[in-house]
Amino acid sequence: MTIKIAIDGPAGSGKSTVAKILAKKLNFVYVDTGALYRAITYKILKEGININEKKAILNIINNFDITLKSERIFLDGIDITEEIRKPYISQNVSQISQIPEIREFMVKLQKELANKNNIVMDGRDITTVVMPDAQFKFYITATEEVRAKRRYNELKANNFNISFKDILNEIKIRDKMDMERSIAPLKIAEDAIVVDTSDMTIDEVTNKLYDIIIKQL
Ligand code: CDP
Ligand code: CDP
């Protein structure tokens, strides 16, 4: 049996940063499931697919050629790591992530990865749907303002000209869609440990999770 560490939480809570460091420290595989949803969103937008056309969506799924290689993500052999972080993807990803056929495909893919490797996986439905059997479950959160500020700083550092207000708004809309959707909404699993990172540094969060894990491994 593989060891599974599942992390869920809203946008900008620090999940992927912490998950990545934990995976390195433990020598586990890291899977950023948000990046997979962002990648399929990129493909659908690029090809101008109408999301109400089931046939076109199935065609995208059946030809979804994705590779995760040392922190980079490749679609059809092309590196899209930076592209999928752009605001136009963030603004569309939650809607596309609600499509049942896409969720079914992603969950299957992610379960397969989790059954083959010791894994740290983060997203929105990892503790509840993808790895309900995980030995370790965390729900990482922070206030909306803190999360928006983190995203703002990140985008500014990458030379994106977007206002704090717009980012806060996008985060609020995305959280609402992710938490209120009917299939696999973001919620706190009954047996998850909740960590509010509003006043915590990345190191503090990582150490807290690492200590909990290492005590029980
Ligand atoms: O990094 P950030 O928190 O902004 O988002 P992300 O983890 O890259 O996820 C982008 C979007 O993908 C989320 O807002 C969800 O709509 C969707 N997602 C999902 O539905 N299920 C997951 N397991 C992961 C992401
Ligand atoms: O994956 P998620 O959307 O939950 O968040 P992230 O991409 O890991 O973190 C968003 C930004 O917040 C990154 O630039 C992190 O460096 C930063 N961060 C922070 O300043 N303090 C934390 N405790 C966690 C993350």
The low-confidence parts are none
What gross morphology would you assign?
globular
Bound molecules: cytidine-5'-diphosphate
Straight-line distance between termini: 13 Å
Number of strands: 8
Structure write-up:
This protein starts with a strand and ends with a helix. The chain is built from 9 helices and 8 strands. The strands form 2 sheets. A 5-stranded parallel β-sheet has the order 2-6-1-7-8, with helices on both faces. A 3-stranded antiparallel β-sheet has the order 3-4-5, covered by helices on one side. The chain has a single domain (4-216), classed as P-loop containing nucleotide triphosphate hydrolases (Rossmann fold, 3-Layer(aba) Sandwich). With 217 residues, the chain is of the alpha/beta class. 52% of the residues lie in helices and 16% in strands. The protein has helices spanning 15-26, 33-46, 54-62, 87-96, 100-116, 126-130, 144-157, 164-180, 202-216, and strands spanning 4-8, 29-32, 66-69, 72-75, 78-79, 119-123, 136-141, 193-196. It is globular, with a radius of gyration of 17 Å. The longest helix has 17 residues, at 100-116. One cytidine-5'-diphosphate (CDP) binds next to helix 1, helix 7 and helix 9. One of its GO terms (biological process) is nucleobase-containing small molecule interconversion.
